[in-house]
């Protein structure tokens, strides 16, 4: 009967964690509508989550677009359909690869930083000190990070889409001798506004998930330095899993 006990314990733990994280997210959203708004703190988190993530996002998007163009050209050449490489690169980047890869990168960089920072504040009793000074820790610490994640992930995704498509263009036209006019025409012919908007909506959802999970794990850290490390690891792993899981359901809904 040990496996039944383990299953029940795991189910209870999962439901409890999900409920607590959802309540924390809900409280942070409600706190956003209570003055003071704290624009300076929001700008700081937007810089940390968005601006500081630009280099790694651009590098990843560039080589993703290049690899996608190279692989698509190799496969389509068997069917004399090389002219569709631009379409495949554009649709793949805007619909899936742009928002998903950006979300995974930000979860590993900014998400880990958020969990570690809040975890350190928890174990050093800085969060308790905020509450003692009548400062709402959720409004001061979590709300700016959730809003920054929701705002900056779509912005990063736009950069990722543009650079990825440009990388595919460079490989197709400069390396594989594809016709530049045909590539650009095929890229714009089948790419619709709905494809771009769906990717941006995905990115915004990913930003909320990353920020909420990372802040929740860091906010509820216990066990000193070891606890901070465990909370950071769990935050990154759970964020990546939720990105991939939610991506499937949003893709099924949009397309």
Word description of this protein:
The structure is a single chain. With 255 residues, the protein is an all-alpha fold. The chain has one domain. Helix content is 85%, strand content 0%. It is built from 9 helices and no strands. Helix 3 runs antiparallel to helix 4 and helix 3 runs parallel beside helix 6. The radius of gyration is 21 Å and the shape is elongated.
Secondary structure layout:
Layout: H1 2-31, H2 39-49, H3 54-76, H4 85-123, H5 126-132, H6 137-175, H7 180-190, H8 193-219, H9 224-254
SSE order: HHHHHHHHH
Strand count, sense and closure of the main sheet? none
> How many separate structural domains?
1
Q: Roughly how many Å is the radius of gyration?
A: 21 Å
- Which oligomerization state do the chains in this entry correspond to? single chain
Low-confidence sequence ranges: none
First-last Cα distance: 44 Å
Proportion in helices: over 70%
Task: Report strand %.
Answer: under 5%
Structural class by secondary-structure content: mainly alpha
Shape descriptor reads elongated
Average pLDDT, rounded to a whole number, is 87
Work out the number of β strands. Answer: 0
Discrete helix count? 9
């Amino acid at each position: 009967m040990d496996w039944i006990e383990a299953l029940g314990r795991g189910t209870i733990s999962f439901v409890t964690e999900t409920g607590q994280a959802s309540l924390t997210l809900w409280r942070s959203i409600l706190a956003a509508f209570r003055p003071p708004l704290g624009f300076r703190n929001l700008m700081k988190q937007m810089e940390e989550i968005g601006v500081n993530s630009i280099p790694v996002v651009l590098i990843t998007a560039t080589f993703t677009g290049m690899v996608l163009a190279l692989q698509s050209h190799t496969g389509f050449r068997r069917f004399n359909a090389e002219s569709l490489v631009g379409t495949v690169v554009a649709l793949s980047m805007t619909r899936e690869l742009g928002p998903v890869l950006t979300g995974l990168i930000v979860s590993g960089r900014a998400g880990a930083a958020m969990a570690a920072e809040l975890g350190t504040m928890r174990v050093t009793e800085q969060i308790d000190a905020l509450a003692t000074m009548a400062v709402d820790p959720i409004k001061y610490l979590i709300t700016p990070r959730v809003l920054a994640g929701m705002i900056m992930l779509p912005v990063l995704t736009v950069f990722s889409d543009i650079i990825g498509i440009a990388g595919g263009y460079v490989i197709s036209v400069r390396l594989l001798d594809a016709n530049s006019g045909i590539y650009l025409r095929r890229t714009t012919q089948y790419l619709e506004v709905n494809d771009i908007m769906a990717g941006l909506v995905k990115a915004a959802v990913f930003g909320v998930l990353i920020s909420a999970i990372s802040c929740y794990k860091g906010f509820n850290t216990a066990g000193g330095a070891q606890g901070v490390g465990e909370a950071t690891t769990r935050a990154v792993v759970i964020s990546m899993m939720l990105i991939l899981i939610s991506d499937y359901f949003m893709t099924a809904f949009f397309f």
